[in-house]
Hints:
Number of domains: 2
Largest sheet: 7 strands, mixed
Number of strands: 22
Radius of gyration: 23 Å
Distance between the termini: 63 Å
CATH superfamily of the largest domain: Aldehyde Dehydrogenase, Chain A, domain 1
Helix content: 25-40%
Strand order of the largest sheet: 14-15-16-13-12-18-19
Number of helices: 15
Shape: globular
Amino acid sequence: MHWxxxxxxxxxxxxxxQDKIQVENPATKEIIGxxxxxxxxxxxxxxxxxxxxxKSWQFSSLEERIELVSKLLDELYTRVxxxxxxxxxxxxxxxxxxxxxxxxxYLEDIKNYLNIVRDxxxxxxxxxxxxxxxxxxxxxxxxxxxxxxxxxxxxLSPALLAGNTMVLKPSQKTPLVAYILTDSIDKAGFPKGVxxxxxxxxxxxxNLLAKHRDIDMITFTGSTxxxxxxxxxxxxxxxxxxxxxxxxxxxxxxKGADKRLALKKTLDKVYLNTGQSCSAYSRLLVPRDEKEExxxxxxxxxxxxxxxxPADPETIIGPxxxxxxxxxxxxxxxxxxxxxxxxxxxxxxxxxxxxFIGPTVFTDVDNSMEIAQNEIFGPVLSIIPYDRVxxxxxxxxxxxxxxxxxxxxxxxxxxxxxxxxxTGTLVVNHGIQLHKAPFGGFKHSGLGREGGKYGLxxxxxxxxxxxxxx
Length: 470
């Protein structure tokens, strides 16, 4: 899985830089691949290609764009296993999870966007004016390592269908699956320059894209710290920016809740993908007098999540994605112990052949502790007791983030509580977070939305044309 070229202007080209980025398997610490570390000259060539392609692509018919994206979808369906196996190796998740969560649902996303644009009104007529919804232009897409295929598709599908062109820089930690996607785009027959791939380090290539005068829009998914940096750079050129950033989401269990349902949904969010999801319910707010019962249930139910080698098809929780993540999560586990939280499951991680950190649960957590305020991005759950429902709402909102969350309890009460939580998405009881619905955050969790028509509209500009009244 060693790729030595970039994809610019419809061709696989040699990079101007000879520098390489090594890709590591987090389960074994073995180098499994490499990609070019692009430089400024490479970025300029990619942006120039996208800029030139936009001149004609913006006026392409919707039917043409639908046909090409449909061809891409067909090609991707032939490579599901290849993509899943690549994600297992570069990210460290289990094969079943890679296929059923990292790949197939995002191919459904492409279908959803194809359906949306078929019915979308790109032109609105009023008595004295017309409103046209036109593509923004050249989009620089900066995508993360934790969902290395899905987060590209979330941006690529609406951007291209809306008539934009794109320069993609995937994460340097998990860039390999992006090459399979790019090869599929090439096979689908998109016009030259509509899509371009430049791999490299975020602090270099990402920042070059964010400040490039011929990039019209930056769409970024990643840490809040990284998003703020990109936002500042892009603001100097008044670019459109969408940011999908971090979270410290709370699941609230109310009196009368179905506890097993609540804990299954919470543990899925915390343990699946080894907790490396921005929407993880990493804080669990529970009635104080039910805390011990809930703790016992968590210990019992955690046994259903097999922890270990992602090569084992039964594995649910694999390693964290990198040495950097291992050190970060280890720090917070140590910090939680130092701050006085009670560790009822897990231990301080030890170095091994891979970056393995098992399920970790703290209880008696105060919301002012670092483990309750900061995004850990690992399989770590903090149980926070409360005495009154209003107190639970205050605790849930007492964070700089506002991305996700859940409320479990009697339906009417749970809905009332959900309306009081300052967050972009919430699940109530049996609700399921759907890809076709808008997703995004309040506060430091981001700007804009992905999913549904709202995700499409992020990539559209509004033009008003005044006409003579008839």
